[in-house]
Amino acid sequence: MTKIQWFPGHMQKSLRDIQSKLKLVDLLIVMLDARIPFSSINWELLKILNNKPFLILLNKSSLADENQNKPFIEFLQRKQFPYLFIDVKYKKNIHCILPFVRKILFHRIKKYPKILKLMVVGIPNVGKSTLINSLCQRKATLTANIPGITKQLQWINLSDNIKLMDTPGVLYPKITNPLVGYSLVLCSCIKETLFTTTEILKYILTYFQKYYPKYLKQLFYLTKEETQTKNLFQLINKKNKSILTPDKMFFIILNKIKKEKIKKVNFDIGLISLLL
């Protein structure tokens, strides 16, 4: 796979804007997708924090494989990074976020009581705007299950003493590891058109075969033994007595992921070990 360039002009500008606004905020909320904790970290963002307090929120945790996330949790604990598993859609641990923020900023609040200003950052489509809407208990920002909806920085009043700055999703300039690219596509953080369908279909069939064969059984009516067949694409077409093109087969899988029919998964299993 060639290096993927996914850094539109608005992302480059947003990264500069975020860096220039850091001095205005007390804490950064860094949002990740719990299904792809490694791939959804933007290390470029973390580099510009300059010792600014932050809290990592791993969103969509109801869809994630807890067992496969244990090595990533160990990494966060070793680094002493504060973190919280949440699920905005299902209101999981949303009530814990602001108390956690106040705990991190306890000494600062005690010394300088004032309006707290928070900034929410992360790559596209990890749920930043949805989180803000949930905390506001109203629709304050646009949301959609496609990358790149928020285009500019905007302040939102959360309460009388808390303000949130929503930011556009900012991805790293280059995706050099193909596994990262595949993970981002499967969780709708980048457009699937950046890869050939055949390439990513072959990857996800092999991935399910190795880690989650039950989804091959459910999606394509395979037996346990059939899920381990070498040429899955041909077998699936033969088994279903139809001709599924690579595009159609990949669409079936991606659509099931988007509709949360495929859950309790981690698409970063081969990547998290890079942190150890």
UniProtKB/TrEMBL annotation:
GO CC aspect terms: cytoplasm
All copies of domain CP-type G, residue ranges: 12-173
Keyword Cytoplasm annotated: yes
Cytoplasm listed as a keyword: yes
Compartments it resides in: Cytoplasm
GO molecular function per UniProt: GTP binding; GTPase activity
Biological process per Gene Ontology, one example term: translation
Matching CDD domains: YlqF
Residues given in the record as GTP binding sites: N125, V126, G127, K128, S129, T130, G169
InterPro entries found in the cross-reference section: G_CP_dom, GTP-bd, GTP-bd_ortho_bundle_sf, GTP-bd_ribosome_bgen, GTPase_MTG1, P-loop_NTPase
Pfam families in UniProt: MMR_HSR1
Keyword line: Cytoplasm, GTP-binding, Nucleotide-binding
Function: Required for a late step of 50S ribosomal subunit assembly. Has GTPase activity.
Similarity comment: family membership: Belongs to the TRAFAC class YlqF/YawG GTPase family. MTG1 subfamily.
Protein name, per record: Ribosome biogenesis GTPase A
Organism: Candidatus Phytoplasma phoenicium
Name of the gene: ylqF
